[in-house]
From TrEMBL:
Keyword Signal part of the UniProt annotation: no
Domain Ferric reductase NAD binding: 3-114
Protein name: Ferric reductase NAD binding domain-containing protein
Cellular component GO terms held in the UniProt record: NADPH oxidase complex
Length: 141
């Protein structure tokens, strides 16, 4: 019943959001998805957000370490890919889902062994346009 929803989960507490995000993907596809042909998606609607009250979802997930993100990433990647394909064909539309990932392990930031990885992240991520930890376009903080 809201225009903007913020979903916040920490660690395995994010589990209920798997079904919510799966449902949102199904609604997204059902509103305009026609078929997939050789990794190209065809859409029938010009506006996913036209006929629905919910216009924006911010998904925020906090984890202690990067490994905990792995089990949920395939779902997030699918949604991100669907949304990017749709937005490429409809540049006037706004993003429906924004993903915000946070790694909270304090040892990770202060560990000298992680300095080369952090350097690679700062250099390669902008070029690849993907987060090196998750492979998503959304950056892990």
């Amino acid at each position: 019943d809201s225009k903007h929803v913020v979903l916040i989960g920490a660690g395995i507490g994010v589990t209920p959001y798997a079904s919510i995000l799966s449902s949102l993907i199904a609604q997204f596809r059902g509103s305009h998805f026609v078929r997939r042909n050789n990794s190209h998606v065809y859409y029938i609607s010009d506006g996913f957000n036209e006929n629905r009250k919910l216009q924006k979802v911010d998904f925020i997930w906090l984890n202690r370490d990067f490994e905990n993100f792995e089990w949920f990433l395939s779902l997030l990647r699918r949604f991100e890919q669907e949304q990017e394909s749709y937005l490429a064909l409809h540049p006037n539309e706004k993003r429906f889902l924004d993903i915000h990932l946070y790694c909270t392990d304090p040892q990770l930031a202060s560990n000298v062994d992680n300095a080369p990885l952090e350097l690679v992240r700062k250099i390669c991520a902008p070029v690849a346009r993907r987060d090196i930890y998750t492979g998503l376009k959304s950056r892990t903080n």
